[in-house]
Amino acid sequence: MNHSHTRARRQPGRHRPTRHRLAAALGLSAGLSLLVPLTALAQATGAAADADTTPRKLERVEITGSAIKRLADEGALPVQVITRQDITKAGVTTAAELMATVSAASKGLTDGVSIGTGGFKDQMGMNSANLRGLGTSSTLVLLNGRRMANFASPGDDQGVDLNNIPAAAIERVEVLLDGASALYGTDAIGGVVNFITRKDFQGVQLDAYGGFSGEGGAGKRTGSISGGYGDVSRDGFNLFGVLDFQRTNALRTSQRQFISDLRIPERLPHLLSGVTYPGNIRLSSDQRDYLQSVGFTINGKPIVNRTINLSAPNCQPPHTLYLPSGIGGEDACTYDYMRDLELYPKTEKTGFLGRGVFKINDSHQAFVEYAYSRARSWYVGTSNRIDAELDVSKIPELAATGLADALPDDRSILVRTRMIEGGNRASQLTSTGTRVVVGMNGTVSGWDYDWGYNHSVNRVSDRDVRGYYPEDATLQAYADGLLNPFGASSAEGLALLKSLNIDQEVRRARGVMDSVDAKVSRALTRLDGGDLAVALGAEFRREKAASSASDLLMSDNILGDSSPGDAQFTNNSRKVWAAYGELLAPFAKGWEAQLSLRHDRYQRIGSTTNPKVGLRWTPMPDLTLRASAGTGFRAPSMDDLYRPTKVSFTSILPDPVCMAENDNDLSFCADAWETRTSSNPKLKPEKSRQFSIGFLTDPSPLWSVGVDYWNIQKRNLISTLGDDVILSNLDKYEPLVHRYNEDEGLAGCDYDASDSSICFIELRKENRGREKASGLDLTLQLRSAATEWGRFSAKLVGTWTLTSKRQTGDGDPYISNLGRFVTDGVVQRWRHRLNLDWSRGDWSLNLANTFYSGYTDQNSAIDTDTGTVVEKNKVKAYSLWDLSGGWEATKALSLRAGVKNLFDTSPPFSNQAYFFISGYDPSYTDPRGRFFYVSGSYRF
């Protein structure tokens, strides 16, 4: 495995002979590990493993985090390197799957998180990287050291869609973990993820992968072809291209036993629904009273509630249940939506990366790079719902009671039903990325230079494809009796339903980034510890983002997909200028300082200058101590500044004013309140300070250890106050809660002096509060000498988070999400990846464990039917074991087979109510269960 972490500089010929031979004998163990250590303590072993006893030239290369070329085992910053061989062993085929194996990543956006209906949340379909749990917007994702256009859909998470990374072209991934890069951008407060593709490949390679789950669903097939021709030094050019296709099947809840085992109707009845199929009837008080007076019965008993269902107690399992204590009550049915959706989307992904390098002369070469990716995902939610009004004559069981004659002015019956016959609501989300980079690099008068022009585009299309209907026409079809809310509709009704289905694009967005960057570097003079080197660079980029919605969506006539209002319409741009400098000073034997400074200027935001300092000390050949410190700066996004007001709703929350007026009755005073989120053109940037300190040592060829402590503090956080925070602290935030009895002249809030209920809660973007995060990155590696049984190695890479907390507002107490689900997720105290490797000749085995520690659940949801808070829960630890084996059949053909989730471990139960999927947390768990795969690669 290639390690690009910091180690003491060792000049050729300076190694101890015995140490060198032992490391060379054991070097393959480094290549057998799945994940390079976060602290890179084993890079000396890795470097030695790639060496032989023949003297060779050590090439200086550029490592993520520095603009100065150096030996691969030098540097003062913690950089994790994941090689192509590691990716193959992990059995992953996408960048998002790869990031899930990184213990320093937390709370990223995933396909499971994106499951929803009707624009359930902003930026549906995005897969993101999130280092340290500090937010997608604080993690910088690069492709070959340069930026990409962010996911174009408007929202709070500004970052690259990992679906746009050409996964089949990845040669390695370098993850800079100490944050706030002076080279790439000080907005990388959480860190930098640099996906580096192949650049000088020659020949042709075919790769194929196929996998299936033990219980069915979520099958995957991938294929790629790579080709390259030409040697730059010999032929004067190299042309390279990779074409990749991937297809994943959907996974329905009906295909997984663990969904039943979660016992959601028993544990989370407050999350179920009273909109069912067959439909629940919602009576008026007069209608109920009349039916009681004539002895009308359900299930052989007189009705007691206003909600009844003519099919009770049979209902229609598994999605429609008879739960007398549930939301439907004893006279009606309850809908368990987790039995009527998909857990994993069907996806189709296509990617291409092409690169050409052309030698101009011995000192200069030009390059051009083109990348294209299209990720199409079908997010399938629940069947649509409708509140249909039927004349009593359309319901024979009620018509027979004489209700129409008794209540001639109240003969309209409200039926709340699911449109099961129309199928589940499905949205087709397509994220397309294109990127063109042209540039040159070389040497002029002793200066290494590199410049490039980068044109990057992301397009997002959100299409309603099934289960959505024009609301007015659908309501009329029920009123006319063409559609039956209680059972099968007629052939005429089904034909009408099919004709009404909406299949069209309803949202679209486009983001463009154009940039020009240049940097130069050279050695200036010789110091006691090596060459004093300097690098200078500058960058200019223009960012543009626009989004819109269809006329049909804006008409607010799509059943199940309400209009987003003007919030979907954005069209903004800005310019950014930056300049930076870096000085590498090995000022004494064993000592090296890395000093850098970056100045950024954002149009209409202002300027900032941020320093960064790194220090490395090697008191002995097998021990390196290092430290770094710097400041960061993240400008508000264009959505933060200019997006029109967005209307949404809270989760179920109590209103303290109502509680005080109604004897603390949660069943009456808890509701989903309207919110209006507004941007703020006066926002200031977030700022940060961070530092890290650590050591790495390998005193023996058989073991090595490394530890890094990191600490990050952010201030001036760009955020809205949590709606739960506002309602729980009305003494401070009451002006943000607008009520009907307040004569403020606000649209939609008609004044009524007798009505103290909430009209809406104002969520305004502001700079408020601070955030603190700290922890330890730990790596332990053991490796054996060669034996007649082969070579063995073990590697543990883990992150122990010590602090993760933030203020919701200036002066408010800190709220910790460390080991506790808060608002939108949890940061586990401990996450690790353990690899146990064996190899002998052409055969190899890898046993890997991914572990997430348990935590305190959200424990705040309210059951409005009973007026109680959900029972407290502790989410169990989640541990997955993967096993894979490889065979190098020939020099050209390699085969691999594996089992992911070897013990078929199910996601642990969670009562979280933030994600659309309930019963477990989809942000880090895998609902596929045991998954088998085979892969092969043929080179010629």
Explain what the structure shows.
The protein has 20 helices and 50 strands. The N terminus is likely disordered. Helix content is 12%, strand content 45%. The strands form 11 sheets. It has a 22-stranded antiparallel barrel. A 5-stranded mixed β-sheet has the order 1-4-5-2-3. The protein has a 4-stranded antiparallel β-sheet with strand order 13-10-20-19.
Describe the structure in brief.
The protein has 940 residues and is mainly beta.
Enumerate the spans where pLDDT stays under 50 for 5 or more consecutive residues.
Answer: 1-61
Percent strand: over 45%
Note the main sheet: 22 strands, antiparallel, barrel
Helix percentage? 10-25%
Separation, N- and C-terminal Cα atoms? 23 Å
Average pLDDT reading: 88
- Rg: 30 Å
Molecular shape: globular
Structure classification? mainly beta
Number of helices: 20
Number of strands: 50
Describe the protein's topology.
Layout: H1 17-26, H2 28-32, H3 43-49, E1 79-83, H4 84-90, H5 95-99, H6 111-114, E2 139-143, E3 146-147, E4 170-176, E5 191-197, E6 203-213, E7 220-229, H7 232-235, E8 237-248, E9 251-252, H8 257-261, H9 264-267, E10 280-282, H10 285-293, E11 297-298, E12 301-302, E13 307-308, E14 320-321, E15 334-335, E16 342-344, E17 346-361, E18 364-383, E19 385-391, H11 396-399, H12 403-406, E20 412-418, E21 424-444, E22 447-466, E23 469-470, H13 471-479, H14 491-500, E24 504-527, E25 530-549, H15 551-554, E26 558-559, E27 570-588, E28 591-602, E29 606-620, E30 623-634, H16 638-642, E31 646-654, H17 656-661, H18 666-669, E32 670-678, E33 686-700, E34 703-715, E35 718-719, H19 723-728, H20 730-733, E36 737-739, E37 758-764, E38 766-767, E39 770-783, E40 791-807, E41 814-816, E42 830-840, E43 843-852, E44 855-856, E45 862-863, E46 868-869, E47 874-875, E48 878-888, E49 893-900, E50 931-939
Parallel strand pairs: 2-5, 32-37
Antiparallel strand pairs: 1-4, 2-3, 4-5, 6-7, 6-50, 7-8, 8-17, 9-16, 10-13, 10-20, 11-12, 14-15, 17-18, 18-21, 19-20, 21-22, 22-24, 23-26, 24-25, 25-27, 27-28, 28-29, 29-30, 30-33, 31-32, 33-34, 34-39, 35-38, 36-37, 39-40, 40-41, 40-42, 42-43, 43-48, 44-47, 45-46, 48-49, 49-50
